[in-house]
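Dear U.,

For the methods section draft, I wanted the exact inputs and outputs in one place so we can describe them consistently. I've listed the two proteins in the order they'll appear in the manuscript figures. Please don't edit the token lines directly; just add comments below if something needs changing.

First protein:
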Amino acid sequence: MNSSASLLGDPLLRLARELEAAGEPYAVATVVSRRPPVSAHVGDKAIVTADGRLVGWIGGSCSQPVVRREALAAIHSGRPRLVRLSTDVPAQAPGDEDATTVVMTCPSGGEVAIYIEPRVAQPQLVAVGDTPLVQALAQMAPVAGFGVVLVSGTSPPAAGPAPAEDGPRRLDLAGLAAARFGPRTFFVVASAGHYDEDALAAALGTPARYIGLVASRRRARAVLEVLRARGLPEAELARIRNPAGLDIGAATQEEIAVSILAEVVAEYRRGLWEEAAGAVRAAGPPQFARDPVCGMDVEVTTARHVAEHAGRTFYFCCPHCRHRFLQDPERYLAGEDGPGSA
């Protein structure tokens, strides 16, 4: 994860580090411009987590629901975006899909622009073994956007030059067992029979998306028997893929690496789709409703200003809008085709 954590204040810095250590995506929202009167100032920041929690300060009730919504969209797309809240809403420029302008309806007026940058954990390929296949995977995986962790049966050198910042992380088996890995982790165990069982046992203790074993079917059966004898349940053993890789008729170590990496990429992309679909299902009913007075998007689950009218529930960004609506509901519901549509 290319961290912007060093630019955050202490509480946000701690939260960013915790999220990154757990492999959880988040977004950083930063106020980049303002026109008074608004409560936020240039440089104010907040973190929005993948479950919609907003920590920090980027403005009050008019800003927070919009920022939360746009941050979640940025996390799912992996693309940054600029959000402008203003009393003057120009037409969207052609091709300007990463910039959004929302009407600012707080009685105080003002304008604020907020840059939202998603911090999505880089998928990790954990390649286990001291074999040419592992070396081939270590060379290919970064090109496909994966971070690489190399696991060897021998201990890493206790001293000597540190690996390059963009080089692979190196662990021994003890380090593998102690390391934390998130769901966007992909294990390839290719130790040629030297320590397959230990590596697989460690991998099965993580929420890794993919665990592949490079071995003949006969040796794979023997490995599974050892793991059963250690008490690992069948449901866990079923997570192990063997043979690893897509069937492309690979013959050389490099071709086998291509077949494995292709399967890993396919599984990674499938996981992204499932995560997005799961988020939609978990959301249930729409999370945002339109304030019928001002047109502001209001977060339903946390809305403080709510009114019932004609058997319908309406949500408002502030008590001022709610008061205006209750004075003359039909004024704001007539046609429901303008900025006051619910």
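Second protein (the one for the lower panel):
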Amino acid sequence: MKPVDDQLYQVYLLRFWRNRTDAPWRATLESGSGGVQRHFATVQELVHFLETNSDQPTTHSK
């Protein structure tokens, strides 16, 4: 299988949950290339992270 260029392709596992029906949604985003997890207290924080990082290449060991 050919290695994937991180500048062209990124994979994440996204989890959403809330503790109560009246509580805000929370999110965890896990990188498919290394399993690094990021936690977000609000959906707005998640969206900001994705917008900020979508134009920047990821860096990790291959």
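Candidate sentences for the figure legend, describing the second protein: The radius of gyration is 14 Å. Residues 18 and 54 are 26 Å apart (CA to CA).

Thanks,
Y.
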